[in-house]
Amino acid sequence: MNDLTCIIIGGGYVGLAALKAIKEKTKGMANGRRIRFVLIDKEPGHLRKFRLFRPTTVEEEIMIPWKDLVLDGFEFVQGTVTTVDSGEKLLRYTDAQGNDAQIHYDLLVVAVGSSVRRPEPYQGGIALIDPQAAADIRNRWRANLRKAAHETNPEERKRLTSIAIVGAGISGIETSAELALAMKKEATALGLNSSDTSVYLLNSQERLLPEVSEKFRRKLVQELSKCGVTVLNNRKVLREEAGVVLFSNGDSLPVGICIWMIGLIPNPALPAMGLPLTSDGRVLVDGSYRVKGAPSVYSIGDCARIVDPKTGEEDQMTCFEGSFQALRLAKIVMADLEGRPAPIHQSSKPNMDNAFNIGLGQEGVFWIRKWGLDMVMTGKLPGKIKKFVEDKTSMLR
Questions:
Q1: Nearest to 126, CA basis, from 240, 204, 266
Q2: 396: left (phi > 0), else alpha (psi -120 to 50), else beta?
Q3: pTM of the predicted model, to two decimals?
Q4: Cα separation of 145 and 187, whole Å?
Q5: How does pLDDT run across 82-113, given as a tens digit for each residue?
Q6: Which domain does 136 fall in, by range?
Q7: What domain count does the chain have?
Q8: Considering 262, 279, 313, which residue would you say is the last residue of a domain?
Q9: Which of 338, 358, 383 is the last residue of a domain?
């Protein structure tokens, strides 16, 4: 009998989790047929998006070659998917050399994730969207500090030693802490007063992370302040112009660099694939992650709209939810292959309001609310736990 071909589109955290879970659940076999696993991604390796802030301060490689992952037993195809023909079960893509190609599938998992939202060109600044942008940011703030070391005008020196981060989600928070700590160290080495460096975290909402407890929020702001980060709430940024951030209320803030980190959008490559999408561009799936109107096609992670059928609760675009989806998907795929009723999606947080583990340099702040208890932990342990989880999720050797 011919092999079954299972293709996973997307080698991010959720795509890797799906590949691992399906391989382990099926043991590479279904109804007496061997399953051939193929991973397709436009990048030559796994991009550790959780670590995107790191190259803003140090030269750290966050693109991991596929051979350095603990996963094995799969083929890798570097290419950009252009069309999914669910009728013919054909996947069309453009390979790394720019040639058109296609591959047949029996099972298809769409896990292409999300992309960083970009500001409009007129808004200035630089968006932290990829490792190259991170390296550009690192080079720019270091150059600014070197200029500041010889600047005699106090106002210009203050501007050169200041950074604004627009967007106060978890990525913005972690990036602000990383930059603040690195700038202090570099300033001292250049003979500047480390306390004169400033990193402003600009939050358009009334308070930081509205979904967390007030206890956690106070502790987080306190720890950010220790790092050298100033949180400014209720600050809607219009644009950065000639080294000045302009706010909607008429205020302004002179800075050496303005970094945009304003959230995520579903992968912009999705519309071209021909799959049914929601109004905001995510893949439409049923309660078992099956893409509507596309037999044997599944989708999970940031690129799909996942809803708990019982509660109507929608999963957030986080790796936490995606990891649980991957485990359930493996059971669903096995059930579908064997003709059995498949599991239905359930919220991954049935017994807790929320949980966060935010890295602040080598340290961190951990919070969980469960069974009515509000627990907060700070220090090196949360930072170590976060790094361990990130390494595990990236499946590093």
A1: 240
A2: beta
A3: 0.91
A4: 7
A5: 999 999 999 999 999 999 999 999 999 999 99
A6: 121-262
A7: 2
A8: 262
A9: 338
